[in-house]
Amino acid sequence: MLTILNTSLIGITAGSIYSLMALALVLVWRSTRVVNFAQAGQAILSTYIGYEVISRTNNYWLALPVALVAGAVIGALVDALLIRSLTKRSANGPLASIAPIIATLGLLGVIRSVVGMIWGGDLRQYKAPVSNIGFTFGHTTIPFSRYNLLIVITTIVVMIVFTVIFQKTSLGLALRAAAFQPETARLAGVKVDRIRTVGWAFAGATGAVAGVLITPQSGLSPNSLDSLLIYGFVAAVIGGLESLIGAAVGGLVLGVGLAFIREYVNSNLEFPSTFVVLLLVLLIKPGGIIAARRGRSA
Amino acid sequence: MSSQRSALLSIEGLSVHFGGLKALSDVHLDLYPNEVVGLIGPNGAGKTTLFNSLCGIVQAQGSLSLNGKRHDWPTTDELVDLGIARTLQGVGLFPDLTVLENVMIGATKFAEGGLIRAALGLDGKKERHLKDRAMTSLERVYAAGIADRRVDSLPYPVTKRIAIARALVSEPKILLLDEPAGGLGSQDIEWMNNLIHNLSATMSVLLVEHHMDVVMSVCDRLYVLNFGEVIASGTVDQVRTDPAVVAAYLGVQANS
Lengths: 298, 256
What we know:
Chain A is mainly alpha-helical. Chain A contains 11 helices and 2 strands, in the order H-H-H-H-E-E-H-H-H-H-H-H-H. Chain A starts with a helix and ends in a 14-residue tail after the last helix.
């Protein structure tokens, strides 16, 4: 019984971070119909910037917002400088829908190399700002620490913030309109290009938060977020690639599912299972298990 | 209409090609303040293409003047800022959103600036202001009572009104209506006639319409398109008796 509880707790923490990465991918997919493989690169660059802040000031609480803003700026720049013109240039061509996606793959490689040139390939570490040791009840220590709690709460806060933005503000309304029917939104006066860049900025900020949160556990290297990209992508697909709630649920389902496979089946099967899940979802319910009704309301 | 008054919108020598196909050739059109002008012609005559070239959706050649000043053909993004609003043939609303949200989308030009504040919803006053504008616009089409309904729960004739409310909320000087009476029953058509007539007190209306009763009763002037060319223009009475028009269009309608 305790093992089931412990396994679930491990899964929830991992799943929270997968949700954040999934959310970052969903925000970009919704606004520009691009699967952003560069998200891992954008997040790693933002995290290194956060790491610089921590190594100079020893202050995690300063590093988190700095990385978040850096992530937003990087995201906005990627869209404004690369994706926007690429989408326009390749429109109607044979590569129309795929060219921007291939470009994000190229960008991932570029950012990784640049990060490697600046910071080197060694694994870097910084400490969690709060205890990483599990809570103890009587004589039992559970695999859930203050830091895990911070991760889960941060994820919940991010989800709430985005839900409020999308549902309650005129900016959110414009984001939804631009995602639904860009041409109609344009006719109605929505500055669709600008709004899409905002979507990329939001995604960049979210990816940065995921990177800064996971690093005390995973360490930091130019490739250290690659597997998170894959987990985030699978979580986003489970959630239907469209909805914020789908990303959250997809991340948790994947996180908990993989924790159980590692605990009860075989720890070597964790990574391959991710792809089995991806294939099963695509084969059985290609719209995702949490596909929002005609998509994009939340 | 008197040539002393300067036209709000003036088009000359408009041509549009789709590959080898000439969709519009050498089209001229003037729209004066507070008039309702109808664009008629058989299917495929180029009416919607003319709207699309005005909206930056198709590439146009020719000259355009707004308020007597030469202007590049607008891009879709700048239409609302130029005081031009358009409704679409297929209504073009967002089905998952409420009536109020749909109309508020048309008001985003009033929400400029303060991106971070907007993102955090801090600018409560501005948000309420947008909502008020949208409600006022809904009142003009007598739909304020259904502001919170989702659009996909409404009957078609009502959605046409919402589409007009969304166009009105940007406070246009020029309103382009694409088949406002299409798909409506006689009662709704009469209602639409009155609305268009009332709107002309504060703006100019250019409309594409197949429904001849509507065209004849609301329009001050007409342009008749056939195979991408203007074959006649003038007041409703002038056009009605123009032999070229009778042959190309009205005659066919009368016989069918």
